[in-house]
Write a structure and sequence with these properties.
With 310 residues, the protein is mainly beta. The protein contains three helices and 15 strands. The strands form four sheets. It has a six-stranded mixed sheet with strand order 4-3-8-13-10-11. Strands 7-15-14-9-12 form a five-stranded mixed sheet. The radius of gyration is 23 Å and the shape is globular. It starts with 19 loop residues before the first strand and ends in a 20-residue tail after the last strand. The model has no long low-confidence stretch (mean pLDDT 91).
């Protein structure tokens, strides 16, 4: 399974009878009552010794179309994903400096302009999205990195909550009073070289869904996943700390969670967001400020003199 913007390197053993074979993919859809593109994309894998399409005298065998799964087959998608591992043992930090717990999901915000085209939610509301109940607001005139490097005030704050501001049954029947996130441009500070563990927890607000979460500036190890609410007392014992896969995008289990781990060794401002384009602009994002370390090799380099102005 691949999420939007996600990549996977694979090795294929060509041990089938020489012929033409379809490679096919279809959507994986987990959000309830949400429209999606249900078409199938295909390519053809052709053995060199197979009959060519433009050969006049050769018998051409029709490509074999593989059987495809149901659009919402979460069980099979999960069973496949958890088998992906690094090809050998990797070095995992044994001490966690930042233990973060981010809930991710949708929400509703009351409309201030009645009958606006943006107000497509129920009862004069519009859809929103958030992380830890904060719907991210992108700056309109100054970039986050520009504001951080030049010390420009008023563009962002560094008070993004490390854990949910209100604790509740994230994957259960959530009270409507918890469906409305606050809005803000909140970032979270990390010290250079700190070991960071993040549990990304899906919620059932509006609908549970597989959110492909992407982190700029880093790759991370996917050390664990599960369904329901993450249990900090029992679930870490199941983490794969031997050969976890290395990713820069990972989907949250619908109605579940995924745990990632990385070392903050790339200074600067780095966005973390859902890779579903619509969800980014609904506010399903946040950003990290990774502070400089020691010396120029561990510090943000100055912008070039010819950097174009926004």
């Amino acid at each position: 399974m691949l999420g939007p913007g996600q990549t996977t390197d694979v090795l294929l053993t060509a041990d089938q009878p020489p012929a033409h074979y379809y490679a096919a993919a279809r959507a994986y859809q987990t959000a309830q009552n949400a429209a999606f593109d249900n078409t199938t994309t295909t390519a053809i894998l052709e053995y060199k010794s197979a009959a060519a399409c433009d050969s006049k005298n050769a018998k051409f065998s029709a490509p074999v179309l593989p059987s495809l799964l149901a659009y919402n087959d979460t069980a099979t998608a999960t069973a496949f994903s958890v088998q992906i591992k690094s090809p050998s043992q990797v070095q995992i930090p044994t001490q966690i400096d930042e233990n973060l717990y981010f809930i991710v999901g949708l929400g509703l915000i009351n409309c201030t302009v009645p009958k606006s085209p943006r107000c497509q939610g129920p009862n004069n509301t519009r859809f929103a999205a958030s992380m830890n109940n904060v719907s991210f607001v992108f700056p309109k005139t100054t970039s986050l990195m520009q504001a951080y490097y030049n010390g420009i005030p008023g563009v962002f704050t560094t008070d993004f909550p490390p854990v949910p501001q209100v604790q509740f049954d994230y994957t259960g029947n959530v009270s409507r009073g918890l469906w409305t996130p606050s809005r803000g441009t909140k970032l979270y500070k990390l010290k250079y070289g700190s070991s960071v563990q993040i549990v990304l927890q899906d919620t059932s607000i509006v609908t549970s869904e597989d959110h492909p979460m992407h982190l700029h500036g880093y790759h991370f190890y996917v050390v664990g996943s599960g369904f329901g609410n993450f249990n900090p007392r029992t679930d870490p014992a199941k983490f794969n700390l031997i050969d976890p896969p290395l990713r820069n995008t990972i989907g949250t289990n619908p109605g579940g969670w995924v745990a990632i781990l990385f070392v903050a060794d790339n200074p600067g401002v780095w966005l973390m967001h859902c890779h579903l384009d619509a969800h980014i602009f609904l506010g399903l994002a946040m950003a990290f400020v990774v502070e400089n370390g020691n010396g120029p090799l561990q510090s943000v380099i100055p912008p070039p003199a010819d950097l174009p102005q926004c």
